[in-house]
Amino acid sequence: MKRFTVLIIESDSRVSGSLADFLDSSSYEVMTAADAQPALECVRRNGLPNIALIASQLPGMSGFALASDLKAKADLPVIFLLAGDDVDGASEELKKYADDFLVKPLDLRELQLRLQLVLSRVPVIDYDGEPVIVDNNLSIDFAHNRIEVAGKVLGLTPTESILLHVLLRHAPRVVNNRTLLSRVWSADYVNEDTLRVHMHRLRRKLEVDSHHPHYIRTERGVGYRFTQRPPRDRADSN
Predict the structure, then answer these.
(1) Angle in degrees, CA 112, 179, 216, rounded to 5
(2) SS3 labels along 9-71
(3) What is the pLDDT of residues 30-39, one digit of tens each?
(4) Buried (b) or exposed (e) across 58-67, using 16+ Cβ within 10 A?
(5) Each residue of 164-216: pLDDT tens digit?
(6) How many CA atoms lie within 13 A of 201 on its CB side?
(7) Taking Cα atoms as reference points, which of 29, 9, 25, 192 lies closest to residue 124?
(8) Which strands, in side-by-side order, build the sheet including 223-226?
């Protein structure tokens, strides 16, 4: 079974090194970067990790801004690594971007527990740098926010890409509206009308007939489901 991949973005090499050594010994596959741009390049080369550990304070870009960039590609779980004086002033950013957070100095056993809890909440599919082949008609390139439908390449907005990523993670099970809203927007003012509008736009790109959808079905009063799991994912789950 393939190990979960963790991307560590931390400018302090001592912290990064100790985290990498510990997680590697705990059966995680580890990638590291000291700043935002190397982290984004790492994702471009290697594909999305299963989860990211991001320091709130980075040299070139704040950890929260980096999380925003990464989450624009897909529904990537993030645990922030905070300095003690960051906690009070970062409540809004944590609410918007964090799946969890820890305060330095880190307790490695607690970190391992938090990783397990977050990964257990978020169904995992390994999306490397290659497009996800759903079937002979549809492939999805999350790294570049685009799909290919019947040979035609179409761009996805960041919101459409995240919606599709969440649905595909759970396929073929229903994802309720509350989960979609919390994973994609993380804002109290966004409601189900907003979700319906974005889902309609996504369907117009995915479906031959958006009024009779093949890939994304509505479960009235509950949510939405993606009807097919990619063949690679079906093989990995056996």
Answers:
(1) 120
(2) ECCCHHHHHHHHHHHHHCCCEEEEECCHHHHHHHHHHHCCCCEEEEECCCCCCCHHHHHHHHH
(3) 999 999 999 9
(4) beebbbbebb
(5) 999 998 899 999 998 888 888 765 667 899 999 999 999 999 998 878 899 99
(6) 14
(7) 29
(8) 175-176, 223-226, 216-219
pLDDT band with cut points at 50, 70 and 90 for residue 229:
confident
**Phi, psi (rounded to 5 degrees) for 148:** -120, 120
**Nearest Cα residue to 185 out of 194, 175, 196, 197:** 194
The DSSP element (H or E) to which 1 belongs, if any, is none
User: How do strand 5-9 and strand 29-33 relate by DSSP bridges?
Assistant: parallel
Cα separation of 39 and 183, whole Å? 22
Instruction: Say yes or no to pLDDT of 22 above 60.
Output: yes
User: Which residue is associated with the tokens 């397990």?
Assistant: 116
- pLDDT at residue number 84: 78
Name the pTM for this structure.
0.72
